Amino acid sequence: MFETFELYTLQQYWWIIISLLASLLVFLMFVQGGQTLIYQLGKTETERSLIINTLGRKWELTFTTLVTFGGAFFASFPLFYSTSFGGAYWVWMAILFAFVIQAISYEYRTKPANFLGRKTYEVFLFLNGLLGTILIGTAVGTFFNGANFSVDKMNLTNIYDSAISRWETPFHGLEAVLNIHNVALGLSVFFLARVLGILYIVNSVNEENIFVRARKQMWYNAVPFLVFFLYFVIHLLLKQGFAVNPETGVIFMEKYKYLHNLLQMPVVLVLFLAGVAGVLYGISSFLFCRSRKAIWFGGTGTVLAVFSLLLIAGLNNTAYYPSLHNLQHSLTIRNSSSSHYTLTAMSYVSLFVPVVIAYIYVAWKSINNKPIEKSDLDDDSTHIY
Amino acid sequence: MTEAFDYSLIDWSRAQFALTAMYHWIFVPLTLGLGFIMAIMETIYVRTGNPEWKRITKFWMTIFGINFAIGVATGIILEFEFGTNWSNYSWFVGDIFGAPLAIEGIMAFFLESTFIAVMFFGWNKVSKKFHLVSTWLVAFGASLSALWILVANAWMQLPVGMKFNPETARNEMHNFWDVLLSPMAVSKFTHTISSSYLLAAIVVIGISSWYLLRKRHIVFAKRSIVVAAVFGLITSIFTILTGDYSARVVAQNQPMKFAAFEGLYVGQTRAPLVAIGVMSTSPEDPDNENIKDFVFKIEIPNFLSYMAFQDINAFVPGIRDLMEGNEKYNIPSAAEKIARGKLAIDALAEFKLAKEVQDQAKMDEARQILDENFRYFGYGYFVDDPSRLVPSVPITFYSFHIMVALGMWFMMFFAIVLLLVYKGKISQSKFWLTIGIVNIPLAYIASQSGWITAEMGRQPWVIQDLMPTMAAVSRLDTNAVITTFILFGVVFTTLLIAELKIMFKQIKIGPKQEGGH
Ligand code: HEM
Question: Fewest beta carbons within 10 Å, which of A2, A181, A230, B374?
Answer without folding.
Answer: A230
